[in-house]
Amino acid sequence: MATVELDRPRLAPPRMRPRDIVRVGAAGLSTRPTRALLSALGIAIGIAAMIAVVGISASSQADLDRKLAALGTNLLTVSPGQTMFGDTAVLPVESEAMVARIGPVQATSATGKVTGAKVYRSDKVPAAQTNGISVLTARVTLPATVGATVASGAWLNDATVNYPAVVLGAATAERLGLGKVDPQTRIQVGGHWFSVVGILDPVALAPELDSAALIGWPVAQSVFGFDGYPTTIYTRSLDSQVENVRGVLAATANPSAPNEVSVSRPSDALVAQRAAGTAFTGLLLGLGAVALLVGGVGVANTMVISVLERRAEIGLRRSLGATRGQIRLQFLAESLLLSALGGAGGLFLGILVTTGYAFYQDWPSVVPAWATVGGLAATILIGGMAGLYPAIRAARLSPTEALATP
Question: Which DSSP symbol is given to 231?
C-alpha cells in the first residue's frame, strides 16, 4: 500500500529583536570579561587621545581669544626699519607727536633705547654678566596704551620720570632676583644707582618690555645723554579703522622716508602662535588615530579568537534553527558593544583630561561637540569593520562542521 507524504510548510525562523541581539552580544562578552576589557581599553586610549588633543587645543584657543578680547587687537607698533644701504634707520624725534595727530588714533606712547647702559643688582656683579637686560626710556602713558599692569609697586609718574627711578619688566625682575618692590631696593643702571619703584606683570602684546628696565624720558636725557629718538611707538586706534591707520602710519611717522619704517600688529604674533599650535595638534591627532587603529586591531583579534573558541556553540545554535544572518548579527553585536564600551570610556577619559589640564592652566574648558560625535562615530566604524570578518566567518560554519570540531 502506497504511503502519501504530506508536504509540511517550512516555518520561517523567528526574527531577533534589537533587544535580543544586544542581550546575546552582551552574553558573549561577559563570558570573557578580562579579554573584553583589554580590547576595549585599546579603543578607549585612541578615543581619549583624540578628544584630549582636540579639547586642549580648543581650550587654549578659547583662552587666547579671551585674552585678545581683553587686550584688544587695535594696537599697532611703529619701529625703525632699514635704510637702502642695510643700516638701521632712525625715527624722527617728532614722529610720536605726528602719529598722535592721526584722526582715528586714540592713544599713543613710545619707548626709546638707551645704548651702552647695563643693569646690575649691585656693583659687585662682574661686568660681563649683562643678563640680556635692555634699558628703555618710557612715557607715562605706556601702560594704558599697551595694556600693561603693575604686579608690585607703581608705574612712573610725572614726578618720578625726572629722578633715578626704574620700573622692571617681569623677566628682568626674575633675573635680578626681585619678587616685590622694597623702598630700600636699588639697582645699578649704567653705573648709576636707581630706586626700583615698580615691577610689571608679563605684557602679552609687548613682550619686549618683559626683559627691560624702564626709566623716565627726562632722566635718561640728563643722566645718559639720551638723544630723544623713539625706537618704538605704540598706538591704539578705533577697531573699525585699524587697517586704515596702519596704511598711513609709515608715511606719518617719517614723511621723508616711509620705506624706512616698520609697522606691525602685535596680536598677529599671537595668531601665528595659535597657527603653529594647530599644526602641532594635527600631529597629535595623527598619533591618536594610530592608537585608535591599534585598538581596532585588538577588537578584531578578540573576535577572531572568540569565533575559533566558540565553534561548538555556533554549531549548536545552527542545529537548533539559528540562521546564518542571526549568527552574523550575534558576533557583529559583540564587536559593536565592545567598541562602544571602549568609546564611552575614552570619551569620559578624554573629557576628564581636558578639564583637568584646562583647570591647571586656568583656561576655559572646551570640548567641541564635533569631537565627541566624531569620536563616537569613529568607535562605531572601527567596531563594525573589526567585527565584520569574524561575524561572516562564524556565519559560514555549517552545523555539522562546527559540532565535529573537538
Answer: S
CB distance 46 to 294 below 8 Å = yes
9: in domain: no
Residue 265 is classified by DSSP as -
- Residues 100-111 have pLDDT tens digits of 999 899 999 999
Question: Do 121 and 32 lie in a common domain?
Answer: no
Which helix (DSSP H) or strand (DSSP E) does residue 303 occupy? helix 266-309
Domain containing 205 equals: 74-266
**Strand pairing class (165-168; 192-200):** parallel
289 burial via Cβ count (<10 Å: 0-12, 13-18, 19+): middle
Give me the half-sphere count of Cα atoms (radius 13 Å) on the Cβ side of residue 348: 7
- 351 alpha-carbon distance from chain centroid: 15
Residue 8 lies in a domain: no
CB contact at 8 A, 136 and 187: no
- Report the C-alpha gap between 384 and 342 in whole angstroms: 13
Higher pLDDT, 43 or 79: 79
Are 64 and 83 within one domain? no
Residue range 280-302, pLDDT digits in tens: 566 666 766 776 676 667 667 77
Q: Do 101 and 198 reside in the same domain of the chain?
A: yes
3-state secondary structure (DSSP) of residue 151: strand
Whole-model pTM? 0.58
Residue 81 has pLDDT above 90, yes or no: no
Task: Name the domain count of the chain.
Answer: 2
Residue 12 falls within a domain, yes or no? Answer: no
